[in-house]
Amino acid sequence: MHLVAEIEFLVKMVQCWAPDCKHYNVRETCRFFRFPKDQKTRNRWIKLTRRTVEPGPGAYLCSCHFVDGKKDNGPTLFAYNKDKQLKFSFLKRGHVKRM
């Protein structure tokens, strides 16, 4: 992030743009990601958020909506699919016997 953009981000209060998310940058420990400028990736993010309006220039998504909190993973964790997410904690590396 450029220094000017980082200072601008710290000065203003930002709320996560995801539906049903109430995370603010001033009180949460998660990171906030600006919508990508690349139109293909941006459209994918908009589709995944299931919002009916176009995000403005100040729209951010918090890292809680990204697997492992990484922007490269894309936003996939939302309230609408919370109950559909599969968790395989028993499949940790080294715990599965190969035949």
Structure description:
The protein is of the alpha+beta class. It has one domain (3-87). The protein is 20% helix and 6% strand. A two-stranded antiparallel sheet has the order 1-2. The termini are far apart. The model has no long low-confidence stretch (mean pLDDT 80).
Keywords for this structure?
99 residues; alpha+beta; 2 helices; 2 strands; globular; DNA-binding; zinc-finger
Share in β-strands: 5-15%
Low-confidence stretches: none
Largest sheet: 2 strands, antiparallel
Listing every helix as H and every strand as E from the N terminus to the C terminus, the arrangement reads HEHE
Brief write-up:
InterPro entries: THAP_Znf. The protein has helices at 3-11, 39-49, and strands at residues 32-34, 60-62.
Topology:
Layout: H1 3-11, E1 32-34, H2 39-49, E2 60-62
Antiparallel strand pairs: 1-2
Keywords: DNA-binding, Metal-binding, Zinc, Zinc-finger
Organism: Callosobruchus maculatus
Domain THAP-type: 13-99
